[in-house]
Amino acid sequence: MNRPELIIFDWDGTLFNSVGQIVESLKFAAAKYEQPLTDEAAQSIIGLGLPEVMQTLFPQVPHLHQDLLVSYGEHYVQNSKHDAWFDGVAELLQDLKAQGMKLAVATGKSRRGLDRVLTQTQSHAIFDITRAASETMSKPHPLMLEEILEFTSVDVQNAIMVGDSSYDLEMAMKIDMPRIAVSYGVHDVEILKHYQPLTIVDDIADLHRYLKMLIVGKELQV
Questions:
Q1: 179: helix, strand or coil
Q2: What's the pLDDT tens digit per position in 98-119?
Q3: How far apart (Å, rounded) are the C-alpha atoms in residues 130 and 157?
Q4: To 10 degrees, what angle do helices 204-216 and 89-98 make?
């Protein structure tokens, strides 16, 4: 592939260690309204926009979707104050900026939720642009990627999407954007392989190493 100019990151499960709390908050809301929900089902939808999450997990009770969302959101905000980036993320982002990379976020979070965690991590200024599902179309539709490309004036082949879910990789695949999968998030390696990522990395250090090799233009074995 071409030397990258733009790296686009998913947030939850890719940069931010929040998957466990998202699952717990979804289960709290489900229990409050007496709806069945397993850990596996809750984890599997992380990456979708919140309305899509409700439609997928609770199709049988559309009249409860708003109440479930409110309950989930309140529980998550109250219990996620100590969630943080995975170890090495701050160094990774700082190094990419120093290498002249443009950085972006494409997330299933709402704009309100994304702004809260950007403030929590003091990272508003790190990213050239961020897109949240509440202001565009949910993954796996590629609209948020197309909007990021338009804003940054970067060609699709000079951008990379980094994510932990099938929704991230499918979104990129739909517009032929190069993509990297991380194995420490919500979907397992066998699912991620289906979307033909450049590579699948096991931790932030591995991701940092791989991106650095791409930036300096070395040939990589995938």
A1: strand
A2: 999 999 999 999 999 999 999 9
A3: 19
A4: 10
